[in-house]
Amino acid sequence: MIWNDDFETLPREALKSLQLKRLQQTVEKVYAAVPFYRNCFDKSGIKPADIKSLDDLQRLPFTLKQDMRDSYPYGLFAVPLEQIVRIHASSGTTGKPTVVGYSRRDIDNWTELMARSFVAAGTNRGDIIHNAYGYGLFTGGLGAHYGAERVGASVIPMSGGNTKKQLMIMHDFGSTVLTCTPSYSLYLAEVAADEGIDIRQLKLKVGILGAEPWSENMRQEIENKLNIKAIDIYGLSEILGPGVGIECIEAQNGLHIWEDHFIPEIIDPETGEVLPDGEKGELVITTITKEGIPLIRYRTRDITRLIKEPCICGRTHARIERLSGRSDDMMIIRGVNVFPSQIESVLFNIEGVEPHYQLIIERDGNLDTLEIQVEVNEQTFSDEIKILQGLSNKIKKDIKDLLGVTCKVRLVEPKTIARSEGKARRVIDNRQKES
Amino acid sequence: MKVEQISIFIENKSGRLAEVTGVLGDNGINIRALSLADTSDFGILRLIVDDSEKALKVLREQQFTVSITHVIGVAVPDSPGGLTTILQILDKSGVNVEYMYAFVERSGDNAVIIFRFDDIDEAITALANNGINILPSERITSI
User: Fold this and answer.
1) Which residue segments constitute the domains of chain A, with CATH numbers given?
2) pTM, whole model, 2 decimals?
3) Mind listing the pLDDT tens digit for each residue in B3-37?
4) Is residue A364 less than 8 Å (CB to CB) from chain B?
5) Which residue, of B30, B47, B69, is where some domain finishes?
6) How far is B121 from chain A (nearest CA, A)?
7) What stretches of chain B show up as alpha helix (H) in DSSP?
């Protein structure tokens, strides 16, 4: 099923000329209305009229998260506040939040893109959407909410937390679609098991999961434990919120980026150079329809690659591969680049090991140490020491073989690693404090 | 003949052992024999109790990771060389001892040794054929 046939299956040549037209309008607009961009462009010696083809996009400067912080709160808005109908902000764990404003048309476009996303994920009117993304400053809850309403589905505005009640409502109301973070979906399954609820027997058929990177193995785990199709959705508040891209249920292979609203590029995070098609690097997005906060070449820090080959679902919009991590989640341990998702996939490949883990990085003298804490469960537990030591040695060896990093594995008691109702906290890096 | 033994995963954190024994005590479960195997990070507490079903249930409720394994108890004369005879029999039959622990019966005449084997049935046959006294389960759980 496709929500908006005209745009979602637009032939690529037509899509490109639409992108160019919209890019030119956006560049004109930010140059005229946002002093930050006028300064940037002037410094680089570029005028809006220099953008004559999509290739000229590469000549424009990047926008960084720091630029948004420096413009806190409204410095990057391109329209007067009288035209802003909603304001969201990111969680701001590492400083001031980044603030985004939406015009009425922005909200309308966002709703349209979320509607496309829901339909691409195989949901439609008649579905009961259990929306466990947080409502509030975070874009997840409201973004999914309005999209679901536009599709004509029945939305339950659950928001996050209160897990037992979530399960009761899911059971009693007959929810068919779950929207939340991937780690929260597993937490729901765990609490359900403790409560004696067979979550596999509920009416749930699809989970639309996002807001944190997750591995293919975690998808298998979620699909098995909840008996649903787990669909990956991509978004970030700076660009829009959820609904920048989504997997189609037909292929479940890469996330379509809605290219009539965004232009994706892949760059080398070190040099900033645009990489050839198909290479892995940092995703950069330019918004081409946003009014409130249009962003030029925003560096997402997400690591992926672009897939431009046609998809079996019929949509012509390019896909990004499942994220392999964020360039700022990347840990450098004794000079080796390590993503939490890589460690996760090693753990998932070991029979019986559960996806509850935490990575602790310390500095011992001049040496970084990585400790992986893994919960022991009844499946991996044994009354014999050698079997448990065998398990930790196996994890150690697999990590060493795959990532080239020596780590310490610490087996811990079940439920000692904090469960998250939002984004899972996988990494505790104690090195910064000392430097 | 086989005795149920409960094993519990315990992180090396102070007070954790007391939490396990506390849960058992609060539920009126009596510990008959125990051994603790430890590594630098974690330990495995092995217990023989008077009601293993109930112990398993209450420990699981308190979120402990537990398992049940079967072991056997053998009465060994409390005199020099008593254990060697038994180990020689096992060696000849090719049965491996995974671990063992011992305590002395209240009467004081016999030591009781709890054995965990890789092949418990083979071990029982070998010991019985050589006239070794394997204690009935009730005898151990009611020590």
Assistant:
1) 1-328 (3.40.50.12780), 331-434 (3.30.300.30)
2) 0.74
3) 999 999 999 888 889 999 999 999 999 998 999 99
4) no
5) B69
6) 18
7) 16-26, 52-61, 82-92, 120-129, 137-141
